[in-house]
Amino acid sequence: MRYLGIDLGSKTIGLAISDPTLTIASSFKTIFFENEDYESTIDDIKLIVKENDIGKIVLGLPKNMNNTLGERALITTNYKKLLEDNIDVPVVMYDERLTSVISNSILIEADMSRKKRKKKVDSIAAQVILQDYLNKEKNNYE
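User: That's the sequence. What structure does it adopt?
Assistant: Structure tokens below.
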């Protein structure tokens, strides 16, 4: 069993996937879709869940820096419900503050051009979200 990490944007969804030991998260892919047409992504996510033995989805929750929830958090909460209504695995929401900043820093450090970073940043953000979740889950069991 593996976990799937999701970073939800208005035109893209970044995906990361864990290894079977639930220790390491890896960038998986980015799904592109028409502006805020979230339903169009469900079939792709279903297939990924099935093909990769996904046991849990970790969906990044975009909180404001003062810990409040804004419009993007509401959209993400609605997407969580869409996932739960269509895919038979648990979906947990996980604080994603600063993941895009961290992801961009990683890609800049790797000397990736701005154009290439734009295509990769969402899946790296999903990787950061999922890795942080895996680390916290592991620490809670120890």
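The radius of gyration is 14 Å.
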